[in-house]
Amino acid sequence: MKQIIECVPNFSEGRDMNIIKQITDAIESVDGVKLLNVDPGKATNRTVVTFVGEPNPVVQAAYLSIKKAAELIDMSKHKGEHPRMGATDVCPLIPIANISMDEVVEYAKKLGEIVGNELDIPFYLYESAASKPERKNLATVRAGEYEGLKEKLAKPEWKPDYGPAVFNAKSGATAIGARDFLVAYNVNLNTKSERRANSVAFDVREKGRIKREGNPITGKIINDENGEPVREPGMCKAVKAIGWYIEEYGLAQISMNLTDINITPVHVAFEACRTSANHRGLRVTGSEIVGLIPKKVLLDAGKFFLEKQQRSTGVSEEELMHIAIKSLGLDELAPFNPKERVIEFMLEDDQAKKLVDLNLKQFADETASESMAPGGGSISAYYGSLGAALATMVANLSANKRGWDHRLPEFSAVAKKGQMLKDQLLYLVDEDTKAFNGIIDAVRMPKVTDEEKAARNEAMNSATKYAIEVPLSVMSRSVEIMTLAMEMAKNGNQNSISDAGVAAIGALAAVEGAYLNVMINCDGFADQEYVSSVTRKAEELLRAARESKEEIFQYCLSVIKK
Length: 562
Description:
Elements: E1 4-7, E2 10-11, H1 17-28, E3 33-41, E4 46-53, H2 55-72, E5 88-97, H3 101-118, E6 123-127, H4 138-142, H5 149-153, E7 174-178, E8 183-189, H6 194-204, E9 209-210, E10 231-232, E11 239-246, E12 251-258, H7 266-279, E13 284-290, H8 295-308, H9 317-328, H10 338-341, H11 343-347, H12 360-368, H13 376-399, H14 408-443, H15 450-491, H16 497-522, H17 528-561
Parallel strand pairs: 5-7, 6-7
Antiparallel strand pairs: 1-4, 1-5, 2-4, 2-5, 3-4, 8-12, 8-13, 9-10, 11-12
């Protein structure tokens, strides 16, 4: 599954659209990167740019944008209301999908090393990428701003992480970081009272409210031994919140910034607001997410609300998102279309034709056409996805069986695993065709000069390896389906035992079909050590799949015949 990160550089130019356009053009010149938003501010004289993609292309785009900003922006002439210290003031990288913060930190360091070696600019690491605890906070790193930078660089404790410890009058300095995704999130109340909305906000936000004697609003403030007001912490960490009235909507909201959705996800903040509102005689009617979000926000919320309903969470991503949208009331004020609001969907190429987006007849017709792809590899992956889907169906039916409520966690876990395998195999349906097309593209490369021949051979080797590894992945995942099918045959709803058996049959078809594709792509491949290793692995998987399928088939048959 693709790793996706977001980059949100802030450039110290918000008035000259020609300069801003040149910077964003540099970003968009990198394949695999999608520019999501450009937000210039005249008063701040600052532009916030948001783009996403796989890590290496994002790092390359960030480098080009920092380089272009250094060419076009002169900090010695810059004036603006927002704190700043460089032409590219800050450049944070943010995990979005299938990537850990530790991995993002390494990419932040990689970016720092590239720009530090190439550009005559001091660079500091901050937030999760910080090289020292005192550099974690951006405000500390930027203290003194551009005007105090020359003096700051002269101090040994402020030696840059990358680049020279020399004042660059034109470009200043840049902070490169790794931080969590920030979600701007508003919860709607059935009141117009800003004061009551603020009461809920104070209950929820991390810093809570100031403690008072007696009356919580008019009572005397309680101070600590240092004379500082004592605070009563709120319900949610990593949450900033305030109440306000929105005339356009005719209602009050709790407006929140969720600064770490791993600590307080959207659904947890929503439930905290609901609890506080109910306590105060109010009711939460819905909510709204401002801007774009990672898919994980909706998937986690969907699972949370299904668990509250004591239902299996092993359902499709589409179903999880639907449950999340309805449970959070995200469509109360305006339609909420995940295709327009989820970052991963925004990255999809609308022009790319995907096999998995075809209906059953179209898929069959496409397979039967004169084109060599999709072929047996894609069909094998699809067999596997159907086997996983059947095992998942049995798990979900078992989870919903009357009298089996106590077994919900057991069946939900199986269904979640089945959904994951199903989605991975559906992904491999198109990857197999992509792998085949990679070989065709390599074959068509010119091979006249020695350089061209070498490039063609390298491309052929790379494409062939991928064409081997995709069906090998199909085999591996399909063997995992056997475990689920056997578990559901023995422990699941016995009314669906034949479905568990068919799941195993589909999984075996996937394994045997993928095995043929592994072997045909290994044939004639130069790296015999690699071929030998792959062949051993493929044969082990084939043997295990055949044994498992036969065991499951005979077990199902014995139960059916009783």
